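Exercise 7. Predict the structure of Fido domain-containing protein from Candidatus Woesebacteria bacterium RIFOXYB1_FULL_38_16.
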Amino acid sequence: MRFLSLEEVIIIHDDQIERYGGSHGIRDLFLLESAIARLQTTFGGTDLYPSIFLKAAVLAHSLIKNHAFVDGNKRTGTVSMLVFLEINEYKLNISQKKLVEIILKVESGKWSLERFKKTIDINSSKIVK
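Solution. The predicted structure, encoded as tokens:
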């Protein structure tokens, strides 16, 4: 499994700000590093987030909720999740409108991490090469 690096997430953030507007900058580097590392967490040698879909949800959730960037946290979290899935040969099959609705529910706390993960799981397909 391939994970996104700090540099890759910053590039995603900068791209989203350039495309759609907002302020550049990292508000809290520790929170950003924590969000990126969270999906690789283990306890006693056991992966706390064992499935790719749970890892994708954790990545987006952490980037969205930690507010590590000055602006564009939801966009960065969403695109980072999509890129993470893609580099691991999965595609999320949800319309942009529906994805925005889901991300807003995640950000507001209306959706649990588990519900978010289930939605990613049932709406993802393996990329056939």
